[in-house]
Amino acid sequence: MARVVVEVMPKTEILDPQGQAIVGALPRLGFAGVADVRQGKRFELEVDDSVGDHELEQIAEALLCNTVIEEWKVVRLP
């Protein structure tokens, strides 16, 4: 079995209201110096060794992200 992480983030040109809400809340909570926050999603998959990179890409595009507004990357963990 292999462990794979799929990281999904909003594309840079897409407004991230959740990230902006976090940036606004940080100073009120006493945290200074954070200029920007982008909130994304992380999926951890345990897959058979037979699952190839191309199939993982298909899974990410078909189910885990909205390719119109999000970008993603697959990372195989050691």
Q: Can you describe this structure?
A:
By secondary structure, the protein is an alpha+beta fold. The protein has one domain (2-76): Mth169, Chain: A. Helix content is 31%, strand content 29%. It is built from 2 helices and 3 strands, in the order E-H-E-H-E. It has helices at residues 17-28, 53-64; strands at 2-10, 41-47, 70-76. Strands 2-1-3 form a 3-stranded antiparallel beta sheet, with helices on one face. The termini are close together. The mean pLDDT is 97.
Write the layout of secondary structure elements.
Layout: E1 2-10, H1 17-28, E2 41-47, H2 53-64, E3 70-76
Antiparallel strand pairs: 1-2, 1-3
- Structural class, judged by helices and strands? alpha+beta
**Domain tally:** 1
DSSP helix count? 2
Radius of gyration (Å)? 16 Å
Largest sheet: 3 strands, antiparallel
Quaternary assembly: single chain
CATH fold group? Mth169, Chain: A
Query: Secondary-structure element order, as H and E?
Result: EHEHE
Tally of strands: 3
The helical percent reads 25-40%
Low-confidence stretches: none
The top level CATH class name: Alpha Beta
CATH architecture classification: 2-Layer Sandwich
Widest β-sheet, arrangement of strands: 2-1-3
How far apart are the termini? 11 Å
Task: Indicate the overall shape.
Answer: elongated
